[in-house]
Amino acid sequence: MDYANYPRNDILCIDMRSFYASVEAVKRGLDPMTAQLAVVGDVNRPGSIVLAASPALKKKHGISNVSRFFELPNDPDIVIAPAHMADYLEVSIEITKLLNQYVPKEAIHPYSVDEVWVTVNGLEKLFGSRWQVAASIKRDILENFGITCSIGIGDNKFLAKVVMDLYAKKEGIAACTYEDVREKLWPHPVQDIWGIGRRMQRNLNRMGIITLGQLAHFSFKQLTKRFGIMGEQLYWHAWGVDLSPVLGNFTKTEQKGFGHGISLLRDYSNDEVAVCMLDLCEEVCRRARTANKAGRTIHLGITYSKTSGGGFSRSRSIPLPTNSTMDMYHVCMELFGEFYDGTSDIRHVYVTLGNLHDDYGDAQLSLFEDTAGKKAIGYVMDNIRATYGSTAILRATSYTKAGVAIDRSAKIGGHQA
């Protein structure tokens, strides 16, 4: 592979080590790297997930981010911390502000709340080489926030991310150039590489592709025939090539749809799901109205409990765009009535409003119902909630045991704020 024609940039991929656990440790005056601390989504539920475990807890007891609260050993040295998502978001924002002291905002590309790409091209005269910039950022984050981070350095985003995952989490800082791909990346199994999940791993393994090196030498034509554009990306990534932009506005500019879902804390019957569905439709339509959008395609996804297994995912289009809660709810109930098996308990519900149109307020009126009145009611309720809080006005069903709106209002990303 001749890399002469491919761009070379100075890209850092920065990952905060056990971020949630580190923030909670610092709040308690503990060392994030030595304290045994677990961040639990809901300490009142034994089955709640461990959202983060400190490095020491992972090493001593093998606790991971998919462990459950009840699986934590009875060790008096373990600190149990309830999740506080608002705190983690606040620290993440402050870390981004720190990075902004090194580079302009268009050079910062947040990947998640605890991971970010930073393009550090042209900083040699100010801060030194990209290695020196990485070391300086790592030191500043530790000194200002008490949090240890791992930093991968690459000629592009892919190389920076992969070398961070494979090497920097052990070494602190690690780098990979185009010329290092053969030695540093090719020996690794494909499942160790960012962007290759379990399903893709199984597909590649069936084709005799075990390592990244084997993927790099596999037929490009066969990969694209089998996986389409994803096969093309796999091939170029195996050679360390990534042409994704490294500067610019990385925020999503075009909204394709509005969706809202929930993993229920217990099994719901078919009657209870109707209440939950109404709360979800209310939130989706509120977001659509806020964006002055209305949609013509309504989607409902239902997952049954583990004892039942299965579920369904169906969509239906309507003649005129809507952002009315009850319009969306009635279509969801129609889909539920048609495709629900009638007996299974339900554990996950998801609703989406898609095929969006601008909501100018001059949509065709119906001769048989008060369309304008329904629209006005929705916007009035939105204004009340915006002024007095998300629970200032709710439907009566939201106050029943099956309602989810009140509980969700105190959470960020499904976890306690």
Number of helices: 15
CATH-defined architecture of one domain: 2-Layer Sandwich
- How widely separated are the two ends? 49 Å
Q: In which order are the strands of the major sheet placed? A: 5-6-1-7-8
Query: Given the helix and strand composition, which structural class is it?
Result: alpha+beta
How many strand elements?
A: 14
**Mean pLDDT rating:** 89
CATH homologous superfamily grouping of one domain:
DNA polymerase, Y-family, little finger domain
Highest CATH level, the class of one domain:
Alpha Beta
Task: Note the overall shape.
Answer: globular
Q: CATH topology of one domain, anyone?
A: Dna Ligase, domain 1
Order of helices and strands: EHEEHEHEEHHEHEHHHHHEHEEHEHHEE
Strand content: 15-25%
Helix content, binned percent: 25-40%
Poorly predicted sequence stretches spanning 5 or more consecutive residues: none
Gyration radius, in Å: 25 Å
Biggest beta sheet summary: 5 strands, mixed
